[in-house]
Amino acid sequence: MAFNVMVTYVGRAGRENVRFALDHRRWGLSRIRQSAVLDFPIGLIVSDAKDPQGRGVSRPSAANWEPMEVTVTITVIGRMGEVEQGDDPFWPNEIADNRIYYPHRFDLALIGQIDDIPVGKLPRTLHESIRLRIASGCADTIRLSPEDLGFVIESADPAPAAAELVRHLLQE
User: Fold this and answer.
1) Is the pLDDT reported for residue 16 higher than 80?
2) How far is it, in rounded angstroms, from Cα 143 to Cα 133?
3) Distances, alpha carbon 137 to alpha carbons 26, 47, 59, 166, in Å
4) Radius of gyration for the chain, computed over Cα atoms and rounded to the nearest angstrom
5) What is the pLDDT of residues 115-151, one digit of tens each?
6) Is the pLDDT of residue 155 over 80?
7) Are 25 and 110 in contact (CB under 8 A)?
8) Which of 11, 68, 98, 99 is deepest in the core (most CB within 10 A)?
9) How many CB atoms lie within 10 A of CB 65?
């Protein structure tokens, strides 16, 4: 079964908000690509992109992106409920600045986290999306099929489907 996956990248400056979001089981997106599909059961929060020397990688281009040499942390979440428009500050930096930075919000279930996974070991559709998310800073949804993943996810429910994805990625 093919399904939509939300992919977003969080740089170093956003780490406090990631911890806050996971503690409060709520995620927010600042920007969503115009064509993004908001019906996704699984979200991938990609962070901590590093080169082989452990240095942070920012704004990769086609010329400097070697997926087998870049590692990332992927936090896998299940989307619970609809994506809603937030009207009040929620995250620490929003409250401090009295401004809304992440208006597209949804409740989440934390499924798991994979640290230091080589991007090149991921399905091509996924690692290309990660490269684009790091470069643009804009969240997007991608459609992953069994052919993209190299295996079939049996469950249509967010949490079990995401758990299947984590198990598979950890086996790679």
Assistant:
1) yes
2) 15
3) 19, 11, 9, 23
4) 15
5) 888 888 787 788 788 878 777 766 667 777 666 666 6
6) no
7) yes
8) 11
9) 20
Residue with tokens 């409250």: 95
54 CB contacts (<8 Å, ≥6 apart)? Answer: none
Render pLDDT for 26-75 as a digit per residue (tens, 0 to 9): 998 876 655 455 677 788 888 888 877 888 776 665 556 666 678 888 88
H helix or E strand, kind and range, residue 114: strand 104-118
- Other beta carbons within 10 angstroms of residue 164's beta carbon come to 18
Amino acid making up residue 84: E
CB 8 within 8 A of CB 83: no
Q: What is the CATH number of domain 3-171?
A: 3.10.590
Secondary structure class of 132 (helix, strand, coil): helix
Confidence bin at 25 (pLDDT 50/70/90): very high
| Secondary element (H or E) of residue 47 | strand 42-50
Token duo for residue 65: 């992106």
Q: Is 166 exposed, middle or buried (0-12, 13-18, 19+ CB in 10 A)?
A: middle
Q: What pTM was computed for the model?
A: 0.80
Torsion of CA 51, 54, 55, 56, to 10 degrees: 70
Residue 154 has pLDDT above 70, yes or no: no
* Cβ contact 154:79 at 8 Å: no
